Description:
Helix content: under 10%
Order of helices and strands: HEEEEEEEEEEE
CATH architecture: Beta Barrel
Distance between the termini: 84 Å
Structural class: mainly beta
Mean pLDDT: 87
Strand order of the largest sheet: 1-3-4-7-8-9-10-11
Strand content: over 45%
Radius of gyration: 35 Å
Number of helices: 1
CATH topology: Porin
Low-confidence stretches: 1-24
Amino acid sequence: MKLAFLAIAAVLFAPAAFAADPVSQDAPPQPQPVASFSWSGVYVGGYAGGSFGRNRLKNLSGSSDVSLSPAGGTLGGLAGFNYQTGPLVFGVEGEFGYDGWKKGADYLNSRGGTRHAESEGSYMGRLRGRVGYATGNLLLYSAGGVSFTNDKVTQSNPGSGNSDSIDKALTGWNIGVGAEYAFGPNWLGRLEYIHDGFGKKSYDFQSLPGGFANREVRLDQDTVRLALAYKF
């Protein structure tokens, strides 16, 4: 009789025991993967920095040579497009802005008289291709292309006050390196170095009324700058 009672109790209370302590069959939630930053897309922005040049005014008709080291500030706007495939990023970028370097020095003409030469720039434009390696939000890149600027050369006679100026538009080349960082999905910050070379250009001063020496001018420039851009 006692055994029959225990069997009936086991049948009656077993479902309640199982219901009180259910065993979950659901797997624990998996963490969602974090999407990596994509450098592909169009961007626009601005830059600011400093430019440091070497301007050699070679004498072509009797006066002494003049070597200048012009320096000044630079700022402007830029726009470009990147395409990313794996860690590699390819892009093209255009820019235009103010480039206000200026420098002057005295020299001696063919008769030993003191004269003054001055070189001055006012703008810079570049069209560059870029290739880089991306690791998440950081992009390391090199760039190169075509440069456009002007070089206004003035020669003057401090004694008489006479002066002549020739302002030429120059076309050259550029090469540079930089590092860019994405501060979130849209804002990009950049630090970069650019070297521009413009070759040799002849300045025919003897065709002007002042009678100053002709010059062969060679301009090279280095730029260090920061940039901030918005990526669409």
